[in-house]
Amino acid sequence: MSNHHPEEVETPTNKYAEIFARLAAEEKAEAESEISNLKSEMDAVETEPESSISNFKPDLDEVEITASLGELKPAIEAVLFVADEPVPFNQLCKILGDVNSADAYAAIVELMSDYEARNSGLELREIAGGWRISTRPQHHEFIRKYLKSKPSARLSLPALETLAVIAYKQPVTVPEVLEIRGVSSSSAIKTLLEKRLIVTKGRKETVGRPMLYGTSKEFLIQFGLRDLNELPSIEDFEELAS
Amino acid sequence: MSNHHPEEVETPTNKYAEIFARLAAEEKAEAESEISNLKSEMDAVETEPESSISNFKPDLDEVEITASLGELKPAIEAVLFVADEPVPFNQLCKILGDVNSADAYAAIVELMSDYEARNSGLELREIAGGWRISTRPQHHEFIRKYLKSKPSARLSLPALETLAVIAYKQPVTVPEVLEIRGVSSSSAIKTLLEKRLIVTKGRKETVGRPMLYGTSKEFLIQFGLRDLNELPSIEDFEELAS
Amino acid sequence: MAKSKPTTPTTALEDFKPDDETSRDDYKVKLEAFEGPLDLLLYLIKKDEIDIYDIPIARITKQYLEYVQLLETLNIEVAGDFLVMAATLIYIKSKMLLPPDPKTAGEADLNEDPRAELIEQLLEYQKFKSAANMLYEKAHVEGACYTRGALATDKANPEVTATVVDLLRIFKDILDRAKAVQEMEIQREEMSMSEKLTQIRTLLAARKEINVREVFELAASKRELILTFLAFLELVKESYLILIQSQLFGEIIARAREHAAPILEELAVSE
Question: What ipTM was estimated for this complex?
Fold first, then answer.
């Protein structure tokens, strides 16, 4: 794989400097008054709010916003993008504020033909009484491959719990994990073996000679550890808690 | 811009990609035999062991599909649409099959400028070492209205200051942060760990072997950074300060 | 598919702790608007447009101490870090007032400004303060960009990407949980037959009539359920109470026997 130059992409800071300025101005007044309250409590004479403090401000309450005509298409696209189910036309209009529904409809139709025209990997469709953006079926193979290529450190909570016990108590047997967790852990252990996050570490010399489990090299890689000594200890965090 | 530990930026997956490949082969056989061991060891409580075992397929079995040149752009768009985190360029190429990486990169850049040019509500950006489609910030009010969500809680000023010290001085210990800020930073560090903005980075080889902290991938994502090099140099703040 | 604001996993992991430390005590936090001693010093310097390289140490020390006193009069616990700085300031002040002792001080000390180290610390801190501001702005803009959530394969049991810190936290939770269970078991073991009898007698003494189901619901384990059952049998046998069921499958009421009442009262008093 070749190296690509990061400079080719605009930095978000530059790009959104003005957006930030707007967002910031919206919220400025409240914070300033808070700060001046504080400052007057001291017998300090001048009130000159410091920039870093005045920039730190609470959120404004929702204000009713209406999308401008030019904003309709991108706003609809943005909302449909984050929506996890088809958005009914009425709901969409309500979100856009006080808009003419004919304008909103025209924007949707235009957006739909935009997607068609530019050979997009996505499509905009009306389905189940609402509007939805989804991927086109012809790309499903790549999507399937993407989903399979996700890192194996993604785990369910039971698996994470089991992994935590094994990491801190290794080498450890299945019954021992059960005793600590208080729940059967066999299927979680199977998952962890499948993901190669744990490996067997011989057998315990007790009745039944049960298998011992410990973490694998893959575990170290996935969790970014050089060795097991790098695992934080409970003491490390008790210091933070104080 | 100065260099701030570029190696910290890479995800463990990228960092160890080749090590992983080697280990993967080694551990594969091991894991398979372990699974069958475990299977027989456990009292076969599971109802459908065969399906979950057969789901465990090494990546090598993957049927190789390659995107055609014309398909690159839409396929990339479809994959990035479903992705829930930035997709590194290497991973994207792998998903697309046996493609020329220059072609793939050209397709991404073209796709990015398409989004720019057509006044889309979405944008394609490189962030945290991967590519991502997100909504544009100017539409946030409409999205919040749809999601009925409030803006996420902001970090407190102590947490932000602590984060700044960690970002620029990483890997860094708790006492080192205290020295710069002149104030105990444990609770801020705890907050940052809970928010996954920082991670442990091993231990410092000094008395007491204290934990070292550095910023995480989540930090890059939440602060809109491609990598740590994109942070302005700390020396740039000198003029601002005086 | 779940929506999310930035790509943070939406699971129990997120709910480990409340948001941030600012929620603790509003009043306290307001006064702590000064992040620490360095922040306060910077404020005092800027307020009077003082040249940071030539700090009038006596004046600044006075103002600094006034602030610390203000905190104390408001009954606010002054963080140790503030007091350490107060001591440092007083030390620097005294050092600047006294002419250097040529006998004890080395040559280098003669020329060194006692404020040098503090100035350096302030300048260094100031840079990070500005950097924090920059981070704030970045997060602000980035927070307005929304991404799609993860394709949830199993909504009840979502998968997350965990860090070592998550592992530690989870492990600690498990240990705490195990400890809680153990304590519960110990408590449970302590409930003996005679204690169960006393429990029922006390209830009856107070109320004359109790619903048997209520008593069974007090049991924390199967063992205690059996104990409860045996205790009722015992009390019926001793004619301390009678069990009444007004209809088939209806509630069962335990009533203290008339002639047993005085004895019960006596028992209740003697306890």
Answer: 0.70
